[in-house]
Amino acid sequence: MDNILREYCPFGYYQKRLTLLLSVAAIATARQVGMLVFVAAPASYHWDCVATNTHGANLLPTSRGINVTSPATGSCQQFEIGKCSPIYDNRLATATAEFGLICNKATESRFAQSLFFVGMLVGSWVAGYLSDGYGRRAAVLVGFLLSLAASVATTLATSFWMLAVSRCLAGLGTMCYAVTAHVLLSESVAPSYRALSNTLPNLVFSIGLSSLAPIAYVFSDNWRNLVTFVTVEMALLALSSWMWTSESPCWLLSNGKLEQLEAMISRWTQKEGKNLPTGLVASLSVSSDNQGEQGPQLKTSRASEQISLSPFLSRRLRFFSFSMMWTWFSLCVMYYGLSFHMKGLGSNKYVSFFLLSVAELPALILVIWALKRVGRKPCIFWCLVLTTVFCSMSAVIASQSSATNKGTGNTCTCMS
């Protein structure tokens, strides 16, 4: 299949359209990932307490204090025994304020974000099952629809637990789309263009993440308006993905759908002014004739089983697979740990989120060139080395008292 793509349509009109469509769709994925940073931000409030004299009698209420986002332990203790009550600056600004997630309930907002990543974990497995069994195009659509349903449920949430469950479903749909889109792009273009086609969605993802900050600022009066904006955006992208996303040539070939594959490749090559030789696609299945009665038709369940077990069939593949798993685990802990803990920059949450997101853009632009010129392995190695160096610098700088210096270290780490 790679030889056909390389010879007749390495990166033609339809492949560029597919890359553009899935890259734009990454904006909605970025919104889903970063949305809870603003939806579940610490509530802004102050205390209204009743003073008592030495005999325990209530006096006039004390003057209301200044706004706090990290109340003192004593104030929370008084709140729990009924001597203080929170006065929110805007009860609808964040979900934490609306659902009263303060003091001993403050950790529940972090739990909702954790459930989002639990959903991503499940979505990784679901994506593999759906894309191998029913096609890459179907799995992309399912991911969009799950994310859309989760956004609607988040908008209508009447309790914290409804919000948490909807975020878990959003994580499942987001990862189902992200994993499948990466595979679909890799299988639809010639090998020489895979670095470009797979890096562009990540570049647009960072743009979508950074642009979320000004959008969240516009809808800062009501968190449900922000979620509604993301929901409408997701609905439009789900419709466009179903209308204009093509199936993976490799999936069609592995499942014996040769007529559909030939029609699709012929349409691609004709757009480039080339004619696909008759029978060329059918010749790809000649090697499968030795499989007895199966012929070119490869059972979907068997194909899925072979693909799922392929990373563990040899010692070298096992080592490579576990190395990549550990690399991704480490990078995700660092990346999302910084993205969702922005206090180190010492500015408001909108500026902090924007700076941390936009810091990725120079590295992503550079890596498009580096992957092609330097190679995959050296890029991974040097990126990991730079990440280690900048993480160490960030840890040292964070020990200083200056919030600006802390932000500098965190921003450098994000760029790596």
Helix content: 55-70%
Q: How would you spell out the order of helices and strands?
A: HHEEHEHHHHHHHHHHHHHHH
Task: Tally the beta strands.
Answer: 3
Largest sheet: 3 strands, antiparallel
General form: globular
Rg (CA only): 26 Å
Strand order in the largest sheet: 2-1-3
Low-confidence region ranges: 52-74, 286-307, 403-408, 411-416
Strand content: under 5%
Q: Based on helices, strands and strand pairing, what is the structural class? A: mainly alpha
End-to-end Cα distance, whole Å, is 35 Å
Total of helices: 18
Mean pLDDT: 77
Oligomer: single chain
Describe this structure in words.
- This protein is mainly alpha-helical and 416 residues long.
- The protein is 69% helix and 4% strand.
- The chain contains 18 helices and three strands.
- The chain has a three-stranded antiparallel sheet with strand order 2-1-3, with helices on one face.
- A hairpin with a 5-residue loop joins strand 1 and strand 2 (58-61).
- 36% of the residues are buried.
- Mean pLDDT is 77; it is low at 52-74, 286-307, 403-408 and 411-416.
Could you name the key traits of this structure?
416 residues, mainly alpha, three-stranded antiparallel beta sheet, 18 helices, globular, disordered C terminus
